[in-house]
Design brief:
- There is one protein chain.
- By secondary structure, the protein is mainly β.
- A hairpin with a 5-residue loop joins strand 3 and strand 4 (about 50-65).
- The chain has a ten-stranded antiparallel β-sheet, with no helix packed on it.
- The chain contains no helices and ten strands.
């Protein structure tokens, strides 16, 4: 799912974040599945690096009811991070090294549809590597207005185990989106 966020302040670009993710699942038997995952995040004013991740593994459909579902998966992966040298100065406290490392990724994904037009979801994703461990939690409420148009309210918080001295370990994003599907 691609997204592009930007913000201007006093006519100057103040924030910009581009992200894309793709996940494919293949059911194998009795609620078990294989998955492949890829993601890319380029956050010019957040963690100061572009982050690419690919992983694969096995998952299990823990709960599956008509209106509620929980998926849990885990697997190895590879993370590549490029520092944003346009924003990082030579005396910056942010790491300037390129990161290439093996990681372990695990996700818990829950969806509940209490009404025909309303879907509530929560997703917890952990990526652990030698350079850093991230925990991302996201909560969304999506209300279908018509068959093709929906309103989405979202809140995401990302926690980083390592940050430069004097910086916060977490970053939050709140979104309001109008979704149009063909």
């Amino acid at each position: 799912m691609p997204s592009l966020l930007w913000q201007k302040k006093d006519g100057q670009e103040d924030k910009r974040k581009m992200s894309m993710s793709l996940k494919s699942k293949r059911m194998i038997r009795d609620g078990y599945y294989f998955y492949g995952n890829g993601s890319y995040v380029d956050d010019r004013y957040g963690p100061y690096y572009a982050d690419s991740l690919v992983s694969t593994g096995i998952g299990y459909r823990l709960f599956s009811y008509e209106t509620f579902q929980t998926l849990v998966d885990i697997g190895p992966g590879f993370r590549h991070q490029d520092p944003n040298l346009d924003e990082i100065k030579s005396d910056s406290i942010v790491k300037q090294e390129v990161v290439n490392e093996v990681v372990l990724q695990s996700t818990v994904d829950m969806q509940w549809k209490p009404l025909k037009t309303l879907t509530l979801s929560a997703k917890f994703n952990v990526v652990s590597g030698k350079s850093n461990t991230t925990l991302e939690s996201s909560f969304n409420a999506t209300n279908a207005i018509t068959d093709n148009i929906a309103l989405n309210l979202g809140y995401t918080q990302t926690y980083y185990s390592w940050v430069p001295e004097g910086m916060k370990n977490s970053d939050t994003t709140t979104t309001i989106s109008l979704i149009y599907t063909l």
